[in-house]
Amino acid sequence: MTSTSARVVVDLAAIRDNVRSLVSHARTAQVMAVVKADAYGHGLVPAARAAVQGGATWLGTAQVHEALELRRAGLGGRILTWLYTPDAPLDAVLEADVDVSVAAPWALAAVRAAARRTGRTARVHLKVDTGLGRNGLTPAQLPELLGSVLAAEAEGTVDVVGVWSHFAFADEPTHPTVLAQATVFREMVALVESQGVALEVRHLANSAATLTNADVHFDLVRPGLAVYGLSPVPQLGGPEAFGLRPAMTVDAGLATVKPIGAGHGVSYAHAYTTTEDTVLGVVPMGYADGVPRHASGGSGQPGGPVLVGGRRLTVAGRVCMDQFVLDLGPGAREVAGDRVELFGTGADGGPTAEDWARAAGTISYEIVTRMAPRIPRTYLHEEEA
Ligand SMILES: *Cc1c(COP(=O)(O)O)cnc(C)c1O
Questions:
Q1: Which of 183, 252, 324, 346 has its CA 20 to 30 A from that of 213?
Q2: Same domain as 183, residue 36
Q3: Atom 6 of ligand 1 has which residue's CA nearest to it?
Q4: How far does the centroid of ligand 1 lie from the alpha carbon of residue 206, in Å?
Q5: Tally of domains within the chain
Q6: What is the Å distance from ligand 1's center to 227 Cα?
């Protein structure tokens, strides 16, 4: 079948299998599949369902609306949401039985108020900043807040079920900050527990720490990228080294194929020039679809890689808003509608999201999350075989 339309194809069996693999890496710890950012571009609800089928007992979203959407879609189990501002719909969060992070003193007050309004007890995870320098209560802030935490527990508005934190250098497992953050984390957990708070879960590990550092698994691990089959530590090994396989494949049909002469400039600013009589192919995907403009090719700079007709080629010239061009080579046999794969599992000899990340000077996280909502998602293996 040929089509000119771009597609994002998501293999839900890969997500199920990746989570199974993460469950075995996590050993005694539970697995929270992080499905923020529309499940890293894979589609929030289908990806979350597949993750649960694979054995994830928790789901995590940064934004509150995604947690609520999971509940509306009928997903049960524990859900944690963690990044919000004072205007967040916390009443709805509590009514949906979604666990909520408290990362700042104002947030504790807001959660208590929402609990009073709704008559619910908020299940709270205290987010502590053990060194990342981003969201979370610092070691200086936590002791000051504990009085209010205990008062909220006593009045029944808040149940502190978790203490959690996030690494700065999880992708460099031997970096000294990893050990230092784990030590601060243990101290902050001990401080909370010394006040008589009974925690269900202590959690610190993202994908990289889940796969490379069993000492920091605690009760629950929070992999995101690995759920989707990408390696969080490409310098240490590809997905297969960790029992993972990429779930997302992106392809499009050729819109135009035409012969062109030697010495012809290609695309805006003629950043690429043909060196011989050749054939150009136009791919109807551009930076508005999430193809990075930084992966343009020309003047000795190889562009983003593709697989077409069994050969690996790279983007010729500038990536435009809606399209980019390939130099298909002299005598190329492609016709309009033939498929061009931008990235996939790599098993067919085609490029991966990691290859695009290298071509664009970024990380694979950014490649998959930036695939635009205007590209339709197609799901494979929705039912377990
Ligand atoms: C995104 C995120 C994760 C998952 O990170 P990966 O590197 O994709 O595994 C875990 N915890 C927090 C707080 C996050 O923001």
A1: 346
A2: yes
A3: 224
A4: 5
A5: 2
A6: 11
Could you tell me if 356 and 283 lie in one domain?
A: yes
pLDDT number for residue 297: 97
* Residue 58, beta-bridge partner list: 32, 78
Q: Is residue 4 domain-resident?
A: no
Ligand 1 close to Cβ of residue 222 (< 6 A): yes
**Cα-only R_g, the chain:** 24
- Give the whole-angstrom CA distance, residue 359 versus residue 213: 29
1 Cβ contact partners less than 8 Å away, ≥ 6 residues apart: none
Cα distances (Å, whole numbers) of residue 227 to 13, 33, 181, 204: 11, 7, 24, 17
Among protein residues, the one whose CA lies closest to atom 10 of ligand 1: 206
Decide whether any atom of ligand 1 lies within 6 Å of the 130 Cβ.
Answer: no
Q: What is the mean pLDDT of each run of 10 residues along the chain (385 residues)?
A: 76 98 98 98 98 98 98 98 98 98 98 98 98 98 98 98 98 96 98 98 98 98 98 97 98 98 98 98 98 94 96 98 98 97 96 98 98 96 86
Q: Which amino acid is at 78?
A: R
One domain, residues 31 and 145: yes
Can you give the pLDDT at residue 273?
97
- 292 and 184 in a common domain: no
What does the pLDDT read at residue 385? 72
Residue from 166, 221, 244 whose mutation best tests the ligand 1 pocket (most atoms within 8 A of CB): 166
CB contact set of 192 (below 8 Å; sequence gap of 6+): 126, 142, 146, 149, 160, 163, 199
Output b/e per residue, 123-149; b: 16+ Cβ within 10 A.
bbbbbbbbbbeebbbeeeebeebbeeb
Taking the centre of ligand 1 as the mean of its atom positions, its distance from the CA of residue 71, in whole angstroms, is 21
Kindly state whether residue 206 falls inside one of the protein's structural domains: yes
Quote the domain boundaries for residue 331. 248-384
Distance CA 130, CA 62 (A): 19
- The predicted model scores a pTM of 0.97
Q: Provide the token pair at 129.
A: 């900043």
User: Distance, CA 204 to ligand 1 centroid (Å)?
Assistant: 10
